[in-house]
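Incident log, support desk, overnight shift.

02:14 A customer reports that sequence design results differ from what the structure should imply. Their input is reproduced verbatim below. On-call engineer (initials T.W.) acknowledged and began investigating.
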């Protein structure tokens, strides 16, 4: 038997005064009177412990706003797009003037079961971040893999501006060759201008320094006076921005109908790049879309002197008895 029942029965059945009962059980006289009053109206059920939570929370997010937050979460997730609290906040700001804060949206998602805490993640403060100061100061480039509807493996090459996170160029192909990289780079430079430097990993389509020579891509950058930088072997974090974009892109592609051809996959990539550059708020850029961050400052330009032969390997070959010789030019073998 709980304390409230003892108190009530001491007053009702034993006829003791409120003061005596309060002193005997170490409670206040007003509390005893309140319990007895509840008992006389509703019986023993009325004296059961009640929740102290308020019946109405004045600053609680309206149900229709919460429903809209959940609807946006589902819409973005179904499209394979980022559906975090910051992104939902941005989309709500495009629809109405008074919107809840990012923290409030996060609490709504958590309350509705859309957010799972991940305490095992490495804290962001442990990473050493770097960022170019100006647009076009540095472009990152990398190649990732994807599969078509018939399980054929293809490759996606991406160029991304280090400062603004703007995707400057993409290209889908069965195999990414050095010539294809140059073509993507030239198309990107035609639209966004030449970068002052390019950062890649040590893939053979980008560099041949470890083979003592130069690829057609290196020769292209050398001729334009563009500085070419490489990440440390087995350290993808150096090119982390373009690596992270690959992850975001693949989340989107996984929600699309499987592309049957390279052309269809390129169209899907182009659709996502348009959304990513012009609509998607980027957390690293104060919730601005990349194109806004790109156009907010003047762009950097190549500062190196254009060259054609410095650093390019010179090789010697013999002519065979039939008078033939094999030469490599612009990344291709010529017999």
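02:41 Re-run completed on a clean worker. Output:
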């Amino acid at each position: 038997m709980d304390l409230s029942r003892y108190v009530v029965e001491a007053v009702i059945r034993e006829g003791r005064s409120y003061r005596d009962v309060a002193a005997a059980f170490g409670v206040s006289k007003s509390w005893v009177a309140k319990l007895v009053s509840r008992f006389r109206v509703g019986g023993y059920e009325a004296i059961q412990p009640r929740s102290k939570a308020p019946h109405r929370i004045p600053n609680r997010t309206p149900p229709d706003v919460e429903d809209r937050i959940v609807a946006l979460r589902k819409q973005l997730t179904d499209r394979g797009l980022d559906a975090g609290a910051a992104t939902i906040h941005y989309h709500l700001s495009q629809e109405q003037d008074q919107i809840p804060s990012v923290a409030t949206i996060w609490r709504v998602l958590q309350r509705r079961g859309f957010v799972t805490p991940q305490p095992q993640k490495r804290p962001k403060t442990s990473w050493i971040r770097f960022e170019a100061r100006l647009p076009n100061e540095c472009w990152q480039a990398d190649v990732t893999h994807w599969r078509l509807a018939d399980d054929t493996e293809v490759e996606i090459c991406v160029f991304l501006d280090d400062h603004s996170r703007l995707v400057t160029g993409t290209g889908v192909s069965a195999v990414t060759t050095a010539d294809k990289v140059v073509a993507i780079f030239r198309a990107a430079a035609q639209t966004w201008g030449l970068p002052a430097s390019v950062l890649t990993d040590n893939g053979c389509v980008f560099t041949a320094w470890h083979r003592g020579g130069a690829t057609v891509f290196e020769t292209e950058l050398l001729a334009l006076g563009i500085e070419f930088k490489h990440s440390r072997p087995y350290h993808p974090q150096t090119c982390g921005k373009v690596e992270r974009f690959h992850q975001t892109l693949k989340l989107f592609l996984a929600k699309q109908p499987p592309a049957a051809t390279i052309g269809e996959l390129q169209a899907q990539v182009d659709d996502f790049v348009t959304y990513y550059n012009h609509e998607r708020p980027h957390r690293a850029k104060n919730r601005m879309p990349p194109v806004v961050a790109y156009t907010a400052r003047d762009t950097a330009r190549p500062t190196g002197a254009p060259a054609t032969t410095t650093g390019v390997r010179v090789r010697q070959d013999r002519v065979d008895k039939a008078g033939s010789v094999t030469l490599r030019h612009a990344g291709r073998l010529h017999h």
